[in-house]
Design a protein that fits this description.
- This protein has 2 domains: 158 residues, P-loop containing nucleotide triphosphate hydrolases (Rossmann fold), CATH 3.40.50; 82 residues, Alpha-Beta Plaits.
- The strands form 3 sheets. The chain has a 6-stranded mixed beta sheet, sandwiched between helices. The chain has a 4-stranded antiparallel beta sheet with strand order 2-1-4-5, covered by helices on one side.
- The chain is globular, with a radius of gyration of 22 Å.
- It is α/β, with parallel strands linked by helices.
- A hairpin with a 2-residue loop joins strand 9 and strand 10.
- It is built from 11 helices and 14 strands.
- Bound molecules: adenosine-5'-triphosphate and magnesium ion.
- Magnesium ion binds next to helix 1.
- The site of magnesium ion has 4 residues, from helix 1.
């Protein structure tokens, strides 16, 4: 039995075909990444799995239970942290978590609530009103809210959006702990280094289509076959580059330049010549293999609809 199984899933919003024939299985105990540009359909897919959004055709099940016909069971098995911050301004943090526990018939849940508050560094905010919390704190409360009933499958839609670096690290540690303790984790994120650090298997959606589904290693290998990263340090900042080079820029900051080259069509020597012709005095050069960002860019830019 899989944690999540999706077959033949289609979803339209009026004229937008938000999900096209999606077939996707997440196994129990996996740490799964769902990636894609804005509007790719990630949240739509997650909301369907959570039983919150209707769909046109297909089958979606959580731990073998159909999300439409067995909605009550699937709701208990899954905990979803939505992308949009939504909260009731009249309750404090502990009240929100108690109310959520009550939905699942859990009336003596304070020991677990305390544990969640501590793990999410919210203990001191337990009595604070929701409206008095910062955005990052509200997001942490929403994570706790999704976990009050200790769901086996945990789905997090951009849990680290708008969260500062330190808190992001502690959230990673917390999500890793949930995974170690046996939870299946599905994560969407726009921070590709986050997906690369955490996820074992990754799906990439683009314009509602599943364009890649593989282990992280296999995806990285795919990129290494095509892409090479060249990191260059120059004596002086380079300013605006000629158009032919500009297209290959991955990052440019002061006298540091990082280019993304296609192994089959771009010659490193030709690029260095072009830089020299532009007046650059190169003081250091490093070549590296592709990372997940390279693979993501390659896949999502070459498969335009
Ligand atoms: N309630 C809605 N009504 C109409 N169209 C919608 C609705 N929700 C999403 N869409 C459309 O469906 C498509 C997929 O949106 P979705 O929110 O699933 O993307 P996403 O991958 O989560 O994007 P992001 O990275 O920005 O969160 C987009 O074209 C979006 O405009
Ligand atoms: Mg989204």
């Amino acid at each position: 039995m899989s944690a999540i199984s999706i077959s033949g899933l289609n979803k339209h919003y009026a004229r937008v075909h938000a999900l096209h024939d999606i077939d996707l299985t997440v196994e129990r105990g996996e740490f799964f990444g769902l990636l894609g540009p804005n509007g790719a359909g990630k949240s739509t897919l997650i909301n369907i799995v959570a039983g919150l959004t209707r769909f046109d055709t297909g089958h979606v099940a959580v731990l073998g239970h159909d999300v439409v016909t067995a909605y009550r069971q699937t709701r208990r098995l899954i905990g979803v942290v939505p992308q949009e911050l939504a909260y009731d301004p009249f309750f404090n943090v502990r009240e929100v978590l108690r109310i959520q526990s009550g939905y699942f018939g859990l009336h003596k849940n304070d020991a677990w609530i305390d544990e969640l508050l501590a793990a999410l560094m919210l203990t001191e905010k337990a009595g604070a009103n929701m409206r008095a919390l910062s955005g990052g704190m509200k997001r942490r409360v929403m994570i706790a809210q999704a976990l009050v009933h200790r769901p086996e499958v945990v789905v997090l839609d951009e849990p680290t959006a708008g969260v500062d670096v330190e808190l992001r690290k502690s959230l990673w540690a917390f999500i890793r702990r949930l995974h170690r303790e046996g939870h299946t984790i599905v994560l969407t994120t726009h921070y590709l280094e986050e997906a690369e650090a955490l996820c074992d298997r990754i799906a990439i959606l683009n314009h509602g289509k599943l364009i890649a589904l593989d282990t992280k290693q296999a995806l990285l290998m795919r990129g290494i076959g095509h892409t090479r990263r060249v990191c260059i340090t120059t004596e002086q900042p380079l300013g605006r580059l000629p158009e032919t080079l500009e297209k290959k820029v991955r990052r440019q900051e002061g006298n540091q330049l990082e280019l993304r080259l296609d192994k089959s069509t771009d010659s490193v020597m030709a690029v260095l010549d072009a830089l020299r012709a532009h007046g650059a005095v190169i003081t250091d050069l490093n070549m590296e293999g592709a990372d997940l960002e390279d693979v993501f860019v390659e896949l999502t830019q070459t498969q335009k609809v």
